Amino acid sequence: MKIAIAQLNPTIGDLIGNAQQILEAAKEATSQDTRLLLTPELSLCGYPPRDLLLNPSFVELMASSLQQLAQDLPPLLTVLVGTVEPNPKAHFTGGKPLFNSIALLEQGKVKQIFHKRLLPTYDVFDEHRYFEPGLESNAFTIDGVRVGVTICEDLWNDEDFWGKRNYQVNPITELVQQGIDILVNLSASPYSAGKQQLREAMLQHVAIRYQQPLLYANQVGANDDLIFDGNSVGFNRAGEKVCLLRSFETDLAVVEFKQQKRDLTSGEAAKIPPAPTSLDEEIWSALVLGVRDYTRKCSFQKAVIGLSGGIDSALVAAIATEALGAEHVLAILMPSPYSSDHSLKDALSLVENLGIESHTLPIEELMQDYDRTLEPLFAGTEFGIAEENIQSRIRGNLLMAISNKFGYLLLSTGNKSEMAVGYCTLYGDMNGGLAVIADVPKTRVYSLCQWLNSDLGLNSFRHLKSKIQNPKFPLIPANILTKPPSAELKPGQVDQASLPPYDVLDDILHRMIHKHQGAAQIVEAGHEPTVVNKVMRLVARAEFKRRQAPPGLKVTDRAFGTGWRMPIARR
Hints:
Largest sheet: 7 strands, mixed
CATH architecture of the largest domain: 4-Layer Sandwich
Structural class: alpha/beta
CATH topology of the largest domain: Nitrilase/N-carbamoyl-D-aminoacid amidohydrolase
Mean pLDDT: 93
Number of strands: 20
Radius of gyration: 26 Å
Distance between the termini: 62 Å
Number of domains: 2
Helix content: 25-40%
Shape: elongated
């Protein structure tokens, strides 16, 4: 029996478009004599639908869309589709109104419904807000093969792998005890750097422990701040990989289940693509997908970026060019009297290398207008942060004016290190519709640019190969990589006058944000107590800024966004 995995990129709420994706995957699977097709968790509405689920009419429309999809599918193909199902007992039990479900569609009808049993409430997940957990094991029989069905988190509670049990129930153990021939998991597992290695190790462990062939179908694409990497995968009973779908791209693979051996073998289409060669390549691919999907799904045609000649805006410009094409990226250079000559030259060199359009809008006269307007109120005070930030806010206003005038998406360019300690200006450089590198620490920004200038990076830059006839290298001008980082808001300003060196700052932030270490633990790791205390104070004080920032693409296991919930007013 042939089984296909459809790795789909849904748009949240686009029931018609998402159903069409499933239908097209079904037609492709049928052309390869497939009997069973797997699609990701909530594939009909996209994950995560969040408070759309609180709208009864949306839930009703999903139900009718599911019925129509069942009628439209090839009659000889059985398809598992992610959807939601009303909880008929919610009114009587006080439970949640919906289940996170998988529908089995066959011969024009919805034949069975399976409910997700384990509902995550950590990091970016908030499923208890909407869903009631299922109480029964999920399985069905097709052509004499008993298929055990699990949904995402149902597979992430193996106490033997994790060394602990996060839930009272292990759905895999129950399914195996009841007797199944193959285990499938329909998932929408968000990306974070390095996660695929852990994911595959866990899935392989389950296959070996239970001696069960396992197919894992994961969503791909970006929805708001969350990026889904795909990387759907299959293992045989011995834990050997029989298929792997492409990372960060839609894909479909077919494997064959041998009923005599009760095991999976690779089909003709189940070729295993090469893995990313480095973490930089992986993060780059995630960010490109994040920008491309956010722009497309929010119906923007072009992006605009403030290009300073610094490394952050250079990286964002490169990402946007790869994601959207040079013809869809506009760079705005806004020099002030404090901007160095080399910054303007570096920015123009990058513009030429990327092949994007640019305009230069000097801001000196606007700065003077602000000074004259504020002079009666600011008389007798010294030049300080307020005056410095006016420059950033002038630039932010100009960029937003361009965005409003032409309908372009403004991409903000602040990195995670700056966002963490508040080294950024509200209504200035924080302006934008998407914060592209808000989850990328400064040290990783440098690493990504260095990788992009390498042969491996340049070879992965598809836009460069297809659009630019005579590219100049390095792609990111060398001076951008070597000069001291500076906001250039006053003479001689450099970041390190206000902040610790970025390698020190990023290590402290990593220990604080990702490892949840306190001051004493960070000092014990070798950092100066005064520096640690200063950084921790800055992180706490900057919370009000982060709350007002545009959504930022999540590429680490803890980003400033959906999974970060800190109070602003606190001591």
